[in-house]
């Protein structure tokens, strides 16, 4: 289980306050007592997806599926500084990305460590 603290949720709220769907996702994470995977699963079901795996495996697989997009160099510095707005905008303009899941996916990446998460791609270069 990936745990998001109340303090972290408050920091994300201050960055993402302009987007109601981001606020909805953060509210749900808070309602799930900071359990990121549980909140992401609930959002996925609301979005019409039918996750076939355990919560923790499913969020990890979703994040890995989008690793090439998330780990683009032009967004890496922002993510390393825990700044989400540019990357959030990029994900939400990617037609096939499930927009309601952008918040939990990016928080998951931050919790894993951006360099750690992106390392498999970096080793290919």
Describe the structure.
The chain is mainly alpha-helical and 125 residues long. The chain is built from 9 helices and no strands. It has helices spanning 6-16, 20-31, 36-46, 55-65, 67-70, 73-80, 85-92, 102-112, 114-122. α2 (20-31) crosses α3 (36-46), α3 (36-46) crosses α4 (55-65) and α3 (36-46) runs antiparallel to α8. The mean pLDDT is 90.
Shape: globular
Strand fraction equals under 5%
Report the structural category: mainly alpha
Number of continuous helical runs: 9
Number of β-strand runs: 0
Radius of gyration: 13 Å
Mean pLDDT across all residues, rounded? 90
Run of helices and strands: HHHHHHHHH
Helical fraction equals 55-70%
Report the uncertain regions: none
End-to-end gap: 31 Å
The largest sheet is: none
């Amino acid at each position: 289980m990936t745990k998001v603290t109340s303090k972290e949720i408050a920091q994300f709220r201050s960055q993402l306050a302009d987007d109601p769907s981001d606020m909805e996702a953060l509210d749900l994470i808070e309602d799930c007592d900071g359990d990121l995977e549980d909140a992401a699963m609930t959002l996925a079901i609301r979005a019409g997806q039918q996750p076939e795996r355990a919560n923790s495996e499913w969020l990890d697989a979703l994040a890995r599926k989008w690793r090439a997009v998330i780990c683009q160099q032009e967004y890496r510095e922002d993510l390393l500084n825990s700044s989400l707005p540019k990357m959030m905008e990029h994900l939400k303009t990617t037609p096939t990305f499930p927009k309601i899941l952008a918040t939990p996916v990016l928080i998951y990446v931050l919790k894993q460590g951006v360099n750690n998460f992106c390392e498999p791609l970096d080793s290919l270069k």
